[in-house]
Amino acid sequence: MRKVIDKILHHQTNRDVIVNTIGNYLNVVFVAFFALILVRIMSPENYGVLSVLLGISYVLANMLDFGTTATIYSYVPDLYTSKSPRLYQFIKSTFFFQSLFSVIVLIVLFVGFPWLDEVFFKTGAPLPELYLTAISVLFYIWQNFFTNILFAAKKFLKANIYINISNVIKTVIILLLSSFSTISTGMVLFVFGILGPTIFFILVLFSKRDLVPLFMKADIRKDEFKFGYTVQYFIATQFYNLALRMDLFLLSYYGLRSEVGYYGLSQKIILTIITFIVSITQVLSPAFATMKTKDEMYKNIKTASLYMIFPTLIFVALMLTPDFIFKLAFTDSFTNTASLTRALAFAFILNPIGSIPMLILLYTARKPAYILWTNVIFFLIMTIGCYYYIPRQGVYGPIYVVFTAFLITVGLQTILAIKEVKRLLHEDTIAT
Hints:
Oligomer: single chain
Radius of gyration: 22 Å
Strand content: under 5%
Number of strands: 0
């Protein structure tokens, strides 16, 4: 057994996947632990306000990414491995323009947030808490930016250590505040949205302090922002993320109240598995961005296929999980969760293997337009399909739609990826 473990850990990619997966799930554990602490020390009303404000900040941080995550994974690996002097220029330029556009949006939010809260969110939170929420968005954006830079440079262990050190310190501070009975919504927002990212920045700066002068001296160039690439992928991710929620939104639209609860719980289980898939693609992205030979291409596709077998097997295992396991975990109150989860596991079975053509199109061929249009198709199938089938099939209507959406879009992306690989091989280059 020890020899098998040593053999697995011998490969850098294996170590990175394991480290990143553990790191991502540790983050999930910390989020759950924070929730357990806070629901015991805050009133339901205050926790509800906090949940909405944190939800707003997380969603905005994701939206104001502007697709720079894909740009970082596409360009940084090659610049880093080749030790190009453009690396710091690219990082600084991308950071500057993303921050600039984000600040413009957040200024608008500052002005309109009180009105939005009164008309739509209706939290009744005081102005300082609303403004603190808006400021925290910028800190989340910056933390995500430098996390992705570390990932693109294959510094997965460092990034996950810094993130979880920040989580540990946040936990200690929350526990201390609760012990003195001084916890409030504003305090939690500050600890999560300002202090946590600041701790992360300090750790990154301390470990890379010798590189800070190079970053500061680098020029800011508009052409380094890769605006076309970034915007296309940004729009594509919004369509995809919204599509993955349309089944739940339309179940609620049709008034299936208890069924929404069953389906929502089943969906959370599936999304937890997707976290594993994301962990793998984060590790594999730099390799797909730097492929230069035919042999490297086949090797990376083979490696990706091997890794994607694991989440696929988890979906299969979920499909075979007996009812009593679900009852043990979720009690008799969620009896329908078992059958729904098994059905959703089948519907998502193509998701892991579908990540491979996506990696090729996005990072090797650098054609985010293909991802955009296939995600638009995915969104339309999910929306129209759920709108049609939910009134006829009830809570099981989305199952057929999800599977069909993945079947068509994964098929299209696979065809496009094969076409791009042939083109690149014909041009005798994989990445430029």
